Amino acid sequence: MDKKTSVTLDLGGKTLTFETGLLARQATSSILARLGDTTVLVTVVMGQERPDLGYFPLSVEYVERLYAGGRIKGSRWVKREGRPSDDAILTARLIDRSIRPLFPKEFSREVQIVVTVLSVDGENEPDTLAINAVSAALAISPIPWNGPVGAVRMGYVKDNGNSEHFLNPGSAELLLSEIDIVVTQTKEGKTLMIEAGAKQASEDVALDSIVKSHEHTVAIISFIEDLAKKVGKKKEEVKENPAFHELVAKILKTYKEEISALIKARATKESGGGSEELVNKIFEEEVAARSAEEHPIEKKMVAKAVEYVSFKVIRENILTKGDRPDGRKVDEVRPISCMVSVLPRTHGSAIFQRGDTQGLTVVTLGSPRMEQLIESAEGEESKRYIHHYSMPPYSVGETGRMGVPSRREVGHGALAERALSAVVPSQDVFPYTIRVVSEILSSNGSTSMAATCGSTLALMDAGVPIIKPVAGIAMGLMSDLSSKTAKDYVVLTDIIGLEDFSGDMDFKVAGTDSGVTAIQLDVKIPGLTDAQIKEIFEKAKVGRMFILGKMLEVMKASRSGVSEYAPKIEMVHIPVEKIGEVIGTGGRIIKNIIATTGATVDVEDDGSVTISGTSEESVQKATEWVKALTREVQPGEEFEGEVKRILPFGAFVEILPSKEGMVHVSQMSTEFVKNPTDIVQIGQKVKVRVIEIDDQGRINLSMLFGEDAKARSELRKEGRPMGAPTGAGPRPPFNREPSTHPLSMQFRRERMEKTPVRRNRGSFRKKPSF
């Protein structure tokens, strides 16, 4: 590309800009995309042929840079960005699933796509922008690809009977939206990819969001096609391998019984193993049958052909006879079993098993200070509900490397987390940080939905008051791609691993009996029609309700309390102006609370106080202490307090933690009190009554009650001193002779009256001379 080309599109009132020919000119193609002030750079590079791999070597990398939001990494020691965040991995998977189905099956050259986020404005999400930019970069490249595609995010708000779907909602709008759905579609109106989270939205709302996306995605696709006409390169041709298709035809004709036996054996496991014996047999026979002049055959091609034929037979059996590999009906869910409280010391645990898929889910509860802090270019955010998913090699009967979570594990954990987020109670209702871990013990299809179901049971076992139980199911599709009839397909309920590999889609739907909470779709064909999606939603709901019923047979509702091994937490809300009274000067009071009770006290800027501890007693004691500190004392209230200080005119009594009032000597007895120590001693417990709170907030107390208090009140009215005999007159006025002492107030006052007023001419004091 010798010159810069820039094009723009009005997308929902915002300007979408694609620019090419200026940056990353050594890449096969590149696009600089901008929406608002959010900017991403997409580069595509086509590498060498890799037929030895046996799969299409496509890699998508999504690179987040903190400078995009004007931030520097918060770590004191490491300032460079590290491994990709979970959000970056999820976005890369989003892009991969949107483009992979449209590459020719025979194409085997390496393709690497790198998306670098250069700028974020906090309003326009970079993920959908990145999908569209990748679509444009592939469209203008020489890489064979049956695109372009368009992607949008849709939201939905219903208020006072009025409903509205809106395009590319911002962060503030998503808080009000019932659904957050990202859809990738083709020019023909078919849907390639769906990723959604919802607040128990109906299937109709989800379907309407998908349908209303078409007008926007079609506009984006036309926009990309116009750019490709200007700067696009001629696509490379992909040649089919005739030897492969000859081998497929021979295997299908000669080894049909062996293929059927292989399918039956593989129906009980997700691993692709089990075909080695048949592959070796065919390979040896083919080598022996070929002459030296013929093209030599490779074992990898035989293995690929065996798998191709197996998948073809599975598809034909389902389409023509409705026979699934494991013998089930097309709408039948595998046998389900559930257990809860399977681990003795964890806060909550459950095992969910569906067929050969088995997942153990464990819940751990912690204080709010244990929430996860996430740093991104847009700033820091916290998560109090976290779901992690692990699928070790033994779950498919294989050996393998154990290490950092794979992209698949991150994606499955995020899907299960999204499915439950809508029903996790707010922090005001349940002030815990919640970590859920799903250990996949055995895998044969739809482990993410097993993790979702197991999480529901484990959360209820842990005493988390979830709004409603959630179940999930994975749907499959077998279609006759050679047929011209749109109805030549079969929707499969609860697919196993073999049906996932040989089929056309993996459509996961999770939700409650009231609506959907999460959707994830990826396909291997050029998309689904709206009619197919509607049918899938309907059948998925039937399957989901069946699974939910089985779960509720084991546990109908959350336990009334948390485990005895879980921390005990109380949440108290205090006025913001009272925060200082809880913390105290230099943190003196809050440190005293923590040291005395053994509980942990966290105070937020909004007045939320979280108190946590290992025992109910320590938490309750600290909670009462905090409440007492911020309590408004009223005149007439009575307390039993402790004498803390004694002064010549009275004593200070602590009536509430860190809150004292003063008892004047005149309020200690009906008799004259010369010295407070004649009545009280430090540390003594005394009963007191609040008689007044003055204009400075000081609390005045009295130790007199009943008739004594009444008598003291009458004496004050008459102006007689305490202890004076009945009938005595009022106290005589006290007259003092004028003092001439130079420090007396009267002398100083008279002197000031005689001194003329001086005008302000600067400082009255002179600097001393040395």
Question: Could you please describe the fold and organization of this structure?
Answer:
- Helix content is 31%, strand content 28%.
- The protein has 770 residues and is α+β, with helices and mostly antiparallel strands.
- Mean pLDDT is 88; it is low at 722-728 and 759-770.
- The termini are far apart.
- The strands form 6 sheets. An 8-stranded antiparallel β-sheet has the order 8-7-9-10-21-20-18-19, sandwiched between helices. Strands 1-2-3-4-6-5 form a 6-stranded mixed β-sheet. It has a 5-stranded mixed β-sheet with strand order 11-12-13-17-16.
- It has 17 helices and 29 strands.
- The chain is elongated and about 125 Å long.
- Helix 9 packs across helix 10 (447-461).
- The chain has 5 domains: 5-187 and 197-231, Ribosomal Protein S5, domain 2; 242-321; 336-554, Ribosomal Protein S5, domain 2 (2-Layer Sandwich); 568-629, K Homology domain, type 1 (Ribosomal Protein S8, Chain: A, domain 1); 638-718, OB fold (Dihydrolipoamide Acetyltransferase, E2P).
